[in-house]
Amino acid sequence: MIINRVEINNFFCYIGENVFEFDKGLNIISAKNSGGKSHLFNAFHWTFFNNIYVDKEFDTTKKEWKNASKTNVLPDYVVQKSENEDSIRSSIKITLTAEFHENEEAKNNLVEYHFDKEVFYKKVDNEIILISTPELSIWYVKDGETFFLDKGEHKWFIDRIFPVSIRKFMWFQGETVDELYDFSNPATLKYAINEISYFPTYENLVNVTKKSVGSISDKIDKEVKKTKKLSEDQEKILRSIEYSKNKLASYKDKKSDALNELENIKESIYKEEEKIKGQGKYSELKTKLTKYEYEIRSINDKIESLNHFGKEAFISKWMLNKCDSLVKASKTNLDLLASEVKKQQKTENPVPITLPGPEYVQKMLDDHICYICERDVEENSPAFLALQSRMEDFRNNQLQRILSDNVTELNKAKRNLLNELPDLANEVTKYDADMSKLIAQRKKALVSRDNLYTESGITNATEITLGSENAEKILNKIRSLQNSKESLERRIQGYDTDFTHEERELTDLETKKSIFISVQDGENISEVEAQKYINIIHRALSDLKSEALDNLINEITIESNSLYKKYLGGKTQGEIEIDRGVRIIDKETKKTLSNLNTAELTAQKLAVANAFLSLSAKKMNRSFPLLADAPTSQFDDENTLSLTENLSNSFDQILIMSKDYNKLKGAERELFIKKANIIKYYELNNDLIDKSGVDSRTNKKTYINTVK
User: Fold this and answer.
1) Using an 8 Å Cβ cutoff, are 118 and 89 in contact?
2) Which end of the chain, N or C, is surrounded by fewer C-beta atoms within 10 Å?
3) Where are the alpha helices (DSSP H) in 397-460?
4) 147: Cβ–Cβ under 8 A, 6 or more apart, which residues?
5) Shortest CA distance to 358 belongs to which of 404, 399, 398, 400?
6) Is residue 595 helix, strand or coil?
7) In 3D, which of 655, 560, 571 has the Cα closest to residue 613?
8) Which residues, in sequence order, are CB contacts of 637 under 8 Å at separation 6+?
9) Separation CA 427–CA 566 (nearest Å)
10) Over the stretch 421-478, which tens digit does the pLDDT of each residue have?
């Protein structure tokens, strides 16, 4: 497969029509950071897989894959310069040449396929509105006739030309090189091998002959039984053998069904994980929105509570704030009032009328005893009359007593106010500060909530809620599928255990059978002769299958090590070993090496991934382009050039986008182009459109300079 041409129109930093022509061999796209190389990479992913690799929401230090269905891909300049009610089109067109997709095997029957994807926006009240979801059309011309693939065929077709099992080897970001493959999962190796070789054919042939071996053996047993009279125990052994074979077949069928189910579940997990790439942000947005809404409600409750307290405090005391001088000046009036109250007292007795109280005076009159001096008080005596006079004073001075009590309370209130007034100013100041702080906090929370909508391109909470619910449903489905996957894997392991146990049982039974049914017993049976050939064919195919797998693993290992050594300029600490996994081992001790530097680990992954793609072209005549964004980001300058110079010999076509070639200029660059056998060399530069204008993304675009 060869990517021929990419046409980009109004896509992120690419303004207007931009064209890249590619050819067989090594194609380089060089650019500084933010030069446009990553968005060229995104152009492929947006077109083929409807996702893009961009900054995370609210954390521009990290990137993530996002579903592109609702992502605004328009350049800032186009958005800025467009008028209200303008309709704006963004589009990508990719042309590639590949084997005709209806051919089961490669026949060098090449067809040029066209992938056209476009989306339309409209500017309304200075806001960009999506007016059509991105639409992809796939078409080709064969025998002079143009054919369009139905939409329902798009995913099948893309999966066919870019197989899922090795897609990660073909399309990757340097930042995600750790995700290229996981060989700790044996299935990864198996699926990759199935894609790049005819190994599945050996498996099918071995399975067919294995069934023939069992079938012919059963037939011989039946024929022998007809010619010999067997005891009950011997019959039981034969029945047990048949039962054991049926159990083995059952375990095998169950395992086969479970493996197929496992493959379907893995595919379902992959599909759901692809969906979550565009939905995952909603869960994070929902969490943040819930947090902001809670903060706003909590702050409003505090403001309401503080406001209620302030109203009550104002009415009860704050209205007297800064009235200290007035309260102190009230002393003159209070003294005047006390003096007037005293003047109105009806008795000349200097003892206050409150001493003793009227209850005690009445008691002394009733008992005719003065409890003060403890003498008798006779009726109509001067002492008796004095007590009566005192009682009369009580009655006459009731109003005076009330006034006196009020004067006392007023004096007490004055003292209390004078004690409290110095703190009132602090209370009022603190109240104002607390209220201002809460209002500021509420404003900040409201701004954060509004920014959440603005920055995410979402207009309301309902979309976040629905998106979050959808994301949670997908996550729950993934969790459920993962549980099913783990359950199936345990079940398959159980089938393997049961199968091994039953095989031992069958071997014992066959040994017992050989005692009373020998080969000679079936010499006159035609199936016996056929069995010899079937057994030979089965053993030969089994050996061929084992040898083919060993040879293939060996070829992958050799190819991987060859590339690994080239990528690191011959300076390797060890060599790649592929068995059930992939690791670097010491060439002498064969022990696994750890604590390798990042460049070595990256080179290892690239070497193994590239070995699979390279062997696919050699074994199956199926070549895939290698498309990599910043694959050498972990390499030093020397290793970067070594990797680049050795890539062109590994694939029919390579597209590398990197900043690592940017410092090459003039003669040095020309030498590098020649040495690395570079077919196409583009330089990207993101620069001002209006050179005298403001330094803003609304005044920038990516310019393409064709060096070669």
Assistant:
1) yes
2) C
3) 398-456
4) 139, 140, 141
5) 398
6) coil
7) 560
8) 660
9) 77
10) 667 778 888 888 888 999 998 888 888 877 776 666 666 677 777 777 777 788 888 8
